[in-house]
Amino acid sequence: MAFSSNTIADHHQQLELAEHQFTISNIKLQRLAHLTDYLPDLQIHSNPLDQNPFFHLVLEFYITPSDFILRHILHDLSGAFPSSEPYLEYHRAGPRKQIYFDPCHMRAAIVTCGGLCPGMNTVIRELVVGLWELYGVRE
Could you tell me which PANTHER family the record lists for this protein (predicted)? Predict the structure, then answer.
């Protein structure tokens, strides 16, 4: 599906309007451990998806450091039921523009605990195909 520049501009304008219409006060970022907390000297690499001829990035594909998700998605914006506790938010998971591993030197392992789990083969297949085809991980 192709988007014209007007459509993209209209989309951004709608997002800006939406951001100004609703505000939630009393939000606290719940910081989670990051790889650099344990390995501060990690090198940053560009994401190999940028050079993959079979993968076409779309607008706003990569997650940015300012992308968050609220722990609870239902909130009373009227103020009739104020909360004394802050609303927790977390950094979103997803693909980043820069990565902390070199795919040429990466190994991946998938560990399961046995038992029946519908869809597990599909999840494993997608991980393997994604690492092999998109990221170039060969081991």
Answer: ATP-DEPENDENT 6-PHOSPHOFRUCTOKINASE 1
